Amino acid sequence: MSKESLKNxxxxxxxxxxxxxxxxxxxxxxxxxxxxxxxxxxxELGRKPTxxxxxxxxxxxxxxxxxxxxxxxxxxFEEVETEDADFVIYNTCTVRDNADQRVxxxxxxxxxxxxxxxxxxIALCGCMMQEQSVIEKIQKSYRHVDLIFGxxxxxxxAELLNTMxxxxxxxxxxxxxxDQIVEDLxxxxxxxxxxxxxIMFGCNNFCTYCIVPYVRGRERSRSPxxxxxxxxxxASDGVKEIMLLGQNVNSYGKGLPExxxxxxxxxxxxxxxxxxxxxxxxxxxxxxxxxxxxxxVIAENEKVARHIHLPLQSGxxxxxxxxxxxxxxxxxxxxxxxxxxxxxxxxxxxDIIVGFPGETDSDVDETIDVVRKAAFDNAxxxxxxxxxxxxxxxxxxxxxxxSKPNFDRLLKVVQETARExxxxxxxxxxxxxxEEINEQDSSLVTGRMSNNTLVHFPGDADLIGEFxxxxxxxxxxxxxxxxxVFE
Length: 487
Prior knowledge:
By secondary structure, the chain is an alpha/beta fold. It has four domains: 2-173, Rossmann fold (3-Layer(aba) Sandwich); 193-305, Transcription Regulator spoIIAA, CATH 3.30.750; 315-423, Transcription Regulator spoIIAA; 426-484, CATH 2.40.50.140. Helix content is 35%, strand content 23%. The strands form six sheets. The protein has a six-stranded parallel β-sheet, with helices on both faces. A five-stranded mixed barrel has the order 18-19-20-22-21. The longest helix has 24 residues, at 22-45. The chain is globular and about 60 Å long.
């Protein structure tokens, strides 16, 4: 294993080694070929070529972007933040329509830049690219795009780059699905002290509003040995906090060989045994299969963050059934109560959709009732966005004149409840992982508590990446100001 510090907190995780499989070795061979093309471009430009990765969507996409940057850095590009780079790649999300529109807007913008920089290359990948209608629109209206690929063949990025450099046509490589998991490719981490870890890919739940199973494919879990090996490497490289990532982490382990089968609760317990890792997060849990064993592991292990994201989506039994969520209002509230009894200092956040087809004012009343009874620490509320290809897209839609007022009254209750919950730690001292210099005041640093709440307090850059004790002096709604406590 080798590792190379690139800039600031950015770290290259490059593990081509005896552990690498045949596909991994094949992709490293393509990286060597691409290095030659990048070197030629460097001679032509008289400087090192630049690359920018723009990420839309979830933590899984953010992790995928780190993999893209790993390859781009390996082959000789310099990472930059601006879209006038020599190579720009958009890692897309398609959960809601506004994400799609933002991507098309950015494509129009970089198209103008490319007219002045004919050597510039533009690529698209991610969930949005798994939709045929999107590909057709790009082929028709955005001919300046050079490379398009989806969610299932991201491990082929080096090979696709090579094809792009050797071709003068638009390269499109979209797979409908895959059962492959390719380990040990380069990764550029955004932070030295924390990292996401994919433990599984895809989703089998088929909620009727959700496009994810269609664009991310069926569930497939990584080998627990590979997960632990990666976490041990990260710990040896200074990572103190990790987030285990999956569309539904509670489903982890299904489909693994019999000699490797492990539940998510068992995996979480093993992860906590890795020396050097001081905090473990996970995202996301589906309420239908959050087990008593998982609650027990969290309750008994201080390393596990006191934060559970538990998407409700609706508090109406009728709407939950139409959504294919496999739980009821009552069972959800029973689960919340069980979690809070076992883990008194836990913070529970949620997702809620308003305006799902067939939803009435009384259905929203049921959702508001759950928000009050569950007392969420925060809720991410969305107006339903129709996604072509999902069952709900073909049902009669709720007009905005109905959904918008219901969204507003739900949001009001969410904010009131969250504000009450947030203030409960005032005056207490909590362990905080310092993440950055405060954006508004450089005399302050910003960190996160175990429950994911932000804290601002006096400090300098030397504290970044360190766990420190902070007294929470004042609550400001969704964050605290405080002061460091010395032993």
